[in-house]
Amino acid sequence: MADLRVDVERADAVMIGGGIASATLAALLSELEPTWDIRVLEKLDTAGQESSEGWNNAGTGHSALCEMNYTPQDVDGSVSPAKAITINEQFQISRQFWAHLVENDRIGDPSEFIHAVPHMSFVHGMENVDYLRRRHEALTSNPLFDRMEFTTEHAQLAEWAPLVAEGRPVTETIAATRSTDGTDIDFGALTRQMLGFATRTGTTVSTGSEVVDLRRMGTDWGVMVRSTADGSISVVRTPFVFVGAGGYALTLLQKSGIDEIRGFGGFPISGQWLRCTDPETIARHDAKVYGKAAVGAPPMSVPHLDTRYVGGKRSLMFGPYAGWSPKFLKAGRYTDLLESMKPSNITQMMAVAPPNLDLMVYLGSQLAATHQQRFEALLEYMPAARASDWEEVTAGQRVQVIAPDKAKHGVLQFGTQLVTAADGSIGGMLGASPGASTSTSIMLGLLEKMFPQRIEAWRPSLTQMVPSWGRSLSEHPDEAHRLLDHTAEALGLTHS
């Protein structure tokens, strides 16, 4: 039998997955090392079509302005702002990098991917109103949140979000906060703009290229790629690999065999939106209105009534409603979950079930919900909604991280986690929200871990691109306000 010949190419760095994380890293490296041969490998025919695609995520620009799950309440009633502040700081880093790209003509019209949309939190009932008041007090002492407004007045709610107020009894106890620093982001459009910039500086973006294996080749990695068009196999040899393949990142890191991925597992969650079809209703709402999550609900299922801009078109959505599929990507396989279960992580995956029974109950109730029951959930946020004005749309697929834990064997995490090899040759991003919004901060952290010998030489360029990198804006109120205003102007964030 004739020997199978496989073409082997050489690259300075390879990004697996054509989403927002890989695009951010490619854009950063294109600025820092414009002579490098960088490859981005994407399985689908177009970049930014999985988790980064507009209708596959909330597009919120997660900055903790409205997401109440980032400000937990303690048993004594106090509200901790620490996580919210951290996430907002990380989002400001993303805004600064995007502003840099726009101001230096790296990418085009920012209105193709970002719009100013006020962020609101809305609750009803005495206990929840008290919580929101405490949340507002805890956050507004910080310069990143001090423009946030609070109200318990129906008239003010009607001004901020008429669809939420319309048809609501004036005797109902309600509260809301509002921040005009909020944004809506089409991460798919942003991904393609950043990859376009990287391509112009020499990066090769190969779509229809599925990575099927990762193997050590001396001090390098061999990235085995299969063409989805003709099935041909090729290998890219590189000293640096980033795995930004959404839910499939777990599987690829397992294939790499690095010790650092041992014990990690994943729990997939899917979902759906209700999308408004009535132009007049869409035009009357200009806000992202977040409520409180149901008991056991994952963060990606926090209900919200949102103004969206996807593909340049203004829309209105509500949801998401949680679902379940064993796939790790929307374009994945039904065997993904089973194939991810290994001797090194089975104990951890089994250990997370008992402490998360409320999640299982919640998912079961969501799967059993009828269309009418889903519509009734919308009525809680929009009492005057008409069922005929809403259609169902499938949301993205997420894989929540199951992380090894010495005390509990395994812990289900709702967030994003960076996993890197000890030698700095390979790293990957696991998890979900708020990964897209904080991708610049995550990729800067990756550069520090993967390129410790280069980071100091890069630091002047990086701080020019991202002025607050490595420093806390919370401790510098004047700079925080200046950068908020500067990035808003650079990105064209003006309210209608």
From TrEMBL:
GO terms for molecular function: (S)-2-hydroxyglutarate dehydrogenase activity; L-malate dehydrogenase (quinone) activity. Keywords: FAD, Flavoprotein, Oxidoreductase, Tricarboxylic acid cycle. Its EC number is 1.1.5.4. It is an enzyme of class 1 (oxidoreductase). This is Probable malate:quinone oxidoreductase. Pathway: Carbohydrate metabolism; tricarboxylic acid cycle; oxaloacetate from (S)-malate (quinone route): step 1/1. NCBIfam families: mal_quin_oxido, PRK05257.2-1, PRK05257.3-1, PRK05257.3-2, PRK13339.1. It comes from Brachybacterium vulturis. It catalyses: (S)-malate + a quinone = a quinol + oxaloacetate. One of its GO terms (biological process) is tricarboxylic acid cycle. Pfam families: Mqo (PF06039). The gene is mqo. InterPro entries: FAD/NAD-bd_sf, MQO. Belongs to the MQO family. Its cofactor is FAD.
